[in-house]
Amino acid sequence: SKVRIYQLAKDLGVDNKELVDTLNELDIEAKNHMSTITEEEAETVKELFVDKEPTDEKQEDSEQKLTVVPPVTVGELAEKLEIDSTSIITKLISKGIMASINQNLNEQILSDLASEFDFVIGDESQEDEEDSNEEEKIIEEILKDEPKGDSAERAPIVTVMGHVDHGKTSILDAIRETKSLESEAGGITQHIGASRVVYNDNTIVFLDTPGHEAFTEMRARGAHVTDISILVVAADDGVMPQTVEAINHAKSADVPIIVAINKMDKPEANPDRVKQELTEHNLVSEEWGGDTICVPVSAISKDGIDELLEMVTLVSEMNELQAYPENTGKGTVIEAKLEKGRGPVATVLVEDGSLNVGDAVLCGNTFGNVRAMVSDIGKRINKATPVTPVEILGLEDIPNAGDTFQVVPDEKQARQIAEQKKEKEREEKLRKNQAVSLDNFFEQMQEGEHKELNIILKGDVRGSVEALKESLLKLNDNEYGIKVKVVHAGVGTISESDIMLAVASNAIIIGFNVRPENNAKKAAEQENIDMRMYRVIYEAIEDVKAAMSGLLDPEY
Ligand code: GDP
């Protein structure tokens, strides 16, 4: 029987070419690595290699080859090999793999490419791996979430959303003016990003920055820092584009909505019209048989503010928000800045456990020892229980809004973990490159990552947006078992908040006769969001269909 040369080369662990050359030197005919030789011939040549100590020359040879350590994307590989990325993409296409420049290459594909482009796949040395496994275990142990002690009800965290000028800020001010803690505690409200109010002995925490933009930006970072959203709709203006946005942003985060129908003091106020318009977005008020709580209010006269807070506590009780005050503290960064003479200052919300002055904390990518804490009413405190907004001093660096923080046993470990997290984040960023796109949807779906294609739809006029949405939803009856979900559909240009929603909900964006704003374009590039513009509905539908069946031509 015959032996295939490349198979033999593989068995011997030698280069195809080296083996062919050696065979030729032995006067054994071998055209290339696809040729075959007899078993006897194979035995002869085997002896030459098996006993041969790896020569220096050979070692040098493999050292000369570039080592590529996964994970890498097509673009990164091209850069490393100093070749044009299209030549990799073309190679992949010839193998039937549709890839974009940001695509991560799995090990299988990478090893295919290794022989084509002459590089070797490296992995960090075994030892390193064991080390980091050990470290990871310790970290896991530290970060393990085992509740200590008894649970206690915790205050809800509330975000106010709605269309511009409908009165978000005014309502927040009205609430704080009448109900803030300061009168009781003798402090003065500090603007640190979040504040507590007390209503009938119930504490409610409000995030100071209203709007769904801030909310979704934090969510895009992985924070789930809102329990209830108050949707402000002006009774004289009704449901407007940003009202719809806010509804969809809250829904996509699964946050319950309480509607505040504001400006009831105005003679033109028409709350029924607001309720009517809300039904078009699946928010049906209670009086009309639905389960959406609508409270008529006026931020100016303060009528209805008490009822609004009453509803917040009610919804909060229904959701049974709990925390374990005896746990080690953890929560989310609301905002952070560098202050002259104070260093990095971060406002955090302690959502579980307790945070104490002197605690070592890990905070996003940074860490530190809590040197001092200042509450939302400007008081220095030593201990913060759930849910307290506090400014903390003592961090090494400025974290990001939406980062989580966590108390750890000591600063040394905090430093270690922070460094590891940085590394992880780098990897995460690579992984992010696999954000869903029409190009890779089919591939990811086959790997079981998605059964649902999330879409954000923006168009120039309501009619076309509705038409496109309906046609897309019709694709739901497909043979692939995939669901199309329109996370948000709206009229107008594609904004940065659309991009953030796409990040937070892992969606693609389809624009119909609209363009992205400049900063949205930048954000989309940064976050690697698939954004496609169409002028013909049919083409958009065809592309989505093609993506579902894996037949879409990649875009370069
Ligand atoms: P935001 O953009 O949603 O934060 O809206 P603002 O709170 O800045 O309010 C926009 C405008 O509406 C301001 O001029 C407010 O004085 C006014 N406004 C807010 N609430 C009420 C209200 O209940 N009644 C009346 N008449 N005006 C209000």
TrEMBL record:
It is found in: Cytoplasm. Residues 408-435 form a coiled coil. Keywords: Coiled coil, Cytoplasm, GTP-binding, Initiation factor, Nucleotide-binding, Protein biosynthesis. One of its GO terms (cellular component) is cytosol. Residues 156-304 are annotated as: G-domain. One of its GO terms (molecular function) is GTPase activity. Residues 153-322 form the Tr-type G domain. GTP binds at residues 162-169, 208-212, 262-265. One of the essential components for the initiation of protein synthesis. Protects formylmethionyl-tRNA from spontaneous hydrolysis and promotes its binding to the 30S ribosomal subunits. Also involved in the hydrolysis of GTP during the formation of the 70S ribosomal complex. Belongs to the TRAFAC class translation factor GTPase superfamily. Classic translation factor GTPase family. IF-2 subfamily. This is Translation initiation factor IF-2. The chain holds residues 2 to 557 of 658 of the full protein.
